[in-house]
Amino acid sequence: MGKAIDQQPLLRAQREKYISLADEIIAVDEIIARKAAELRRAWKMHTGKALKLPDALIAATAIENDAALISNNDRDFNFIKEYHGLNYSNPIQDQAHLMNFIQAQMNK
Questions:
Q1: Is 53 helix (H, G, I), strand (E, B) or coil?
Q2: What is the 3-state secondary structure (H, E, C) of 18-49?
Q3: How far apart are CA 108 and CA 103, in angstroms?
């Protein structure tokens, strides 16, 4: 099994760089909270399992702000993309793609 991100200096540095580039932090308001609840209900009906609250809030924030969501969480976000209009893409398909993605970001 692979190392956690915190144990991989290159991944940790890239994550910190990415976070530092954020233009804006969007507060969770009532509209986002209600959308997150709607997504969690739909996920529960579709899968019989609970969608984690952080994932629901991330997706709801992207939907309500008409923002693209870039992640490698296909398991959760592909469903929301298909049924709820989330603008979602995954640039990382496997470990090779992950390393290429990291190198490309480090070279920017």
A1: helix
A2: HHHCCCCCCCCCHHHHHHHHHHHHHHHHHHCC
A3: 9
Helix (H) or strand (E) holding 103: helix 95-106
In the predicted model, residues of the chain with pLDDT beneath 70 are 1-6, 18, 21, 93-94, 108
What pLDDT does 94 receive? 67
Q: What is the pLDDT of residue 34?
A: 98
Report the distance separating Cα 101 and Cα 11, nearest Å.
Answer: 11
Which helix (H) or strand (E) element contains residue 79?
A: helix 74-84
Residues in the chain: 108
106's tokens: 């480090």
Q: In this structure, what token pair is assigned to residue 9?
A: 């200096």
